[in-house]
Amino acid sequence: MLVLSRKVGERVLVGDKVVVTIVRIGPNAVRLGIEAPKDMNIVREELCDPNGIVIEGVSHAELCTAE
Known about the structure:
This protein is mainly beta. It has one helix and three strands.
């Protein structure tokens, strides 16, 4: 696992198509902004089963929330 230190506004590039930006750092959470192609699935781990498959019954809104 690669572990990086970043400040608000700094970015991490994943390959040539994904950009992760640190949007906000709070006392208990970090808010990330992720720019990626629309055909790439980005899902929070807690919405997947141990095999990485999205759990049945998870709503589209839970998968696609953005600010």
